[in-house]
């Protein structure tokens, strides 16, 4: 099984930031270059090494979380120094405590709503490392644990500050241990979208927000006040999350009419994820109430029921969500109709 290296900051944003030559962005440009180099190094090692194969899933009653947080202390050696274990007192370090709480909130969503025992369905411990690297401009799931940088301070702040980022990266683990969607082209965009969906649901579940009350923003709070933007992505309105002189304009399409064909970013996994993201939002908007209820159950069932191939396209995924809606709620129900209408709106054929 391929275990992808999944980062929250798209490489196209890092490349743009790395090209900045204004004095006020010198530290940010250097940090972006280092983050890009780290992505290339990890991807190279992944192509040479045989990936781990996860254990087969077995039904399990959700147990309590088992969290461990480490501090890399500015180095890039994992996991780092142990700073907090499950049940331990708060450390007083904002990043460490935000990571600990975020791991717990994510575990609670999967346990309470979907009956899943941690991200692998078997109670795997949730580990995280904070203060990774010097001014490191990213957060990532490496196939085994969460890793958070502190940001460069000029464009990005610390990456634990956004609960949707923590939920997003851990959802890559759920995908890894279930559908195993390849991290390339449309399957990769679906992989990214599933993480945005469940990252948003974690944030909404903790805040007890209805679909109408939620912001539907991914990475809200990551940007410093200097950036003209709300977040990394908007599920409600892809392409509108930011419009900044330094970072440029959010390039996400909101339908297949503006699908981006590119070899960059593993075939546009962070860009074209806007299309299935909007489809999920439209289902939640149509049904109202809490998005983790019917919409979340449909998407979770689709991800975990074994119906998806690792190279699933948008059309394959759309049909699978329609089938899951029928399985869960019946044919021609409001849930089934909402799913069909959402995919029709974003121009994905069923």
Short description:
This protein is an alpha+beta fold and 350 residues long. It has helices at residues 11-18, 26-48, 94-114, 163-176, 185-207, 265-268, 274-287, 294-304, 314-329, 334-345; strands spanning 6-7, 67-71, 81-85, 126-130, 139-141, 146-148, 217-218, 233-234, 243-244, 248-249.
Helices and strands, in order, run as EHHEEHEEEHHEEEEHHHHH
N→C terminal distance: 28 Å
Count every beta strand, where a strand is a DSSP E run of 2 or more residues: 10
What is the overall pLDDT average? 92
Key terms:
globular, alpha+beta, 350 residues, single chain, two-stranded antiparallel ribbon
Structure, described:
- The chain is α+β, with helices and mostly antiparallel strands and 350 residues long.
- Helices cover 42% and strands 9% of the residues.
- It has ten helices and ten strands.
- It has helices spanning 11-18, 26-48, 94-114, 163-176, 185-207, 265-268, 274-287, 294-304, 314-329, 334-345; strands at residues 6-7, 67-71, 81-85, 126-130, 139-141, 146-148, 217-218, 233-234, 243-244, 248-249.
- The strands form three sheets. Strands 1-5-6-4-2-3 form a six-stranded mixed sheet, with helices on one face.
- A hairpin with a 3-residue loop joins strand 9 and strand 10 (248-249).
- The chain starts with 5 loop residues before the first strand and ends in a 5-residue tail after the last helix.
- Mean pLDDT is 92; it is low at 42-57.
